[in-house]
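Good day; I would like, with your permission, to put a structural problem before you. What I wish to show you is a protein chain and, alongside it, a tokenised description of its three-dimensional fold. Here, with my thanks, is the record as I have it:
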Amino acid sequence: MSELEKYKADVERLSAGLFERLPKDSPEVEKSAVTTALNHIDKLHAVLKKIANANNTSYSTGQALSKATTWARLAIGLTAAQVVQTQMDRVTITGADDSVDPNALALMSKEYPFVEWGILFGSHPGTPRFPGSDFRHQLAKVKELNPQMKLSAHLCGRLARDLVELGNLSFRTLYPYLWHHFERIQLNFHGQWHKISREFLEILPEFKGKQVIFQVDRINELAWGQCQNYCDAVPFFDASHGAGVMPEKWPKPYFGVYNGYGGGLGPENLAEEIPKIALAAGGATFWIDMETKVRTDEKLFDLVKVKACLKAAAPFIVGKD
């Protein structure tokens, strides 16, 4: 048997029964087996091409090998979609600001009803990521006309500290016209420890009907759990503290609650990373959040990138055909 024939035989062996490796009882183990086979096929494909080129022969095996590789990739893709389809139900896009018209967000919500717009509130309104007064008032009007539009308020800096450490709900005082429009309130800790005060726990019942999101960032790991008995508290995994850096490995979820994942997600990697998050989630319902990578030059909120993300995420949304 020639070297070329040996490699062809290896490819056929690795390709055979590939779909028998699809997930059954243990998706993580089975997916690993399929990925290993695919890696071998890719390597063999490259070697065969080198052999063919060295012998000045036509690459006659190319079509067959490409077909095998394509089927392998399709197998992995379909498997990942099936896993995620029972879990992910929302995509949060954070950081819309004065550079975008709230009406554009409403239109995109109609096309992608699973999108939630995360609006940042902090000490510097009117700057990139933090909308000013005109945007906020316009958003309130747009939400009135589009009640299906999903919104979450992300409190940063003093707004978050005053609430958690003093029990001072200054956000509601400053923006009374917006309070009832937000279904969810996220507390951004940005890697700084926040002590859960008694005053905060006492005011949490006023969040009735709203979900309260706590950053799980290796520093405030237990904050959300301390508040579970007082409100609808849920964890959001973001080890980069909002810096848009992807973790080496997506963490396991807290079972029995809604879990959020963020950090480094964007249009160029969603198709690859959503299945990884799904495998980590292991059956728990989750959402994902993006901020940094939906901007141009980290400043301009980019609707083109936003739409690319939503289009990439759409096949993985629960209940979507």
